[in-house]
Design brief:
EC 2.3.1.266, GNAT_dom, Aminopeptidase, disordered C terminus, six-stranded mixed beta sheet, alpha+beta
Amino acid sequence: MTVFDIDRCVELEHLLFPEDDPWQAVSFRSELAGRHNRYITARDADDRMVGYAGIALLGDPANPEAEVHTIGVDPGCHRGGIGTLLLEALLATAGERGGPVFLEVRTDNAPAIALYAKHGFHIIGLRKNYYHPSGADAYTMRRPELTAAADEWAARDRQDEVLS
């Protein structure tokens, strides 16, 4: 992601999260400036950005961890695999350092929870009134550190599900 993508990110934020204080341009600029953050985009065949995602790489080399900050996909592209591709790219980035990966997700976002569960995340906590101003609750989810071999087997299992 570059600063040239920010306007589209803000547009998508307002479509995706209208009741939960969508990120403004200043938030994306701040995230892009953070040296421990990695943000990516997904584009369609016409080079239009249809999704974005970001992760923070935290901890130190002896105790690394990561936190997924956001994943957003254009509503017109939902159920097309873009969210999966973005999440897998974030997990690959985190996997280069090792350690667990954390995230928060609305408790009523069943498709996202299912996506995260397919990728090894487990609910470890509940944050009441996490999202503002709606007051929606969030689950905290954790994906334990996986070896490269375990990640490869999980990817094969997901591919087998698609083919069957």
